[in-house]
Amino acid sequence: MSTISIVGAGNVARGIATRALAAGYEVELLVRNEEQGRALAGELGGNVSVAGIGAEVAGDIVAIAVPWSAVAGIVSAFGGFAGKTVVDATNPLNADFTGLDTDADTSGAEEIAKLAPQAKVVKAFNTVFAGNVVAGEKNGEALDLLVAADDAEAKAAVVAFAEKAGFRVIDTGALSQARTMEALAWLHMQLQFTRGTNFASAITIVD
């Protein structure tokens, strides 16, 4: 595998693409606005291609890096990403940004798995702020990347990519752990306002 496909052209997409390029991967940006995609590709430099929503996906791993409200339409447009390993980098925030848009007995990642039964869904990148992902470190230390999945092969592929990209990967277990990861990400977002950290802090497990 040499290509990482990313749906989106925002900050999360920029972060994942930056780390993929630094690790020697080619990057494919799958975007609704191809002008915006080409602008990001130009800023990223390196081997970056741009294609529209619904195009054939080049990478075996495809990261979803769009707002939660767009996810269902994206999955449908790509035919459920059949045969792909799908990295869910989203957080399922509700429309007024007052909490999560999922019930307690599910998660955004599990809902994507229902929408894409022929794909292998891995939850990752949702607990690390995009600016830190672009930087690739925090205070000189590797970033902790929490990962959850049911499919062992898909999880191993994402772990291998993330480790090559410079993260310290922490396997949290089954895909149902995405519920905890999404709740943790929401808490971390709220703490930005009470602690004044401007979305620059990082969640770290101290061993």
Automatic annotation (TrEMBL):
It holds the Pfam family F420_oxidored. The keyword NAD does not apply. Residues 3-92 form the Pyrroline-5-carboxylate reductase catalytic N-terminal domain. InterPro entries: NAD(P)-bd_dom_sf, P5C_Rdtase_cat_N, STEAP_metalloreductase. Keywords: Oxidoreductase. This is NAD(P)-binding domain-containing protein. The lineage of its organism: Bacteria, Bacillati, Actinomycetota, Actinomycetes, Micrococcales.
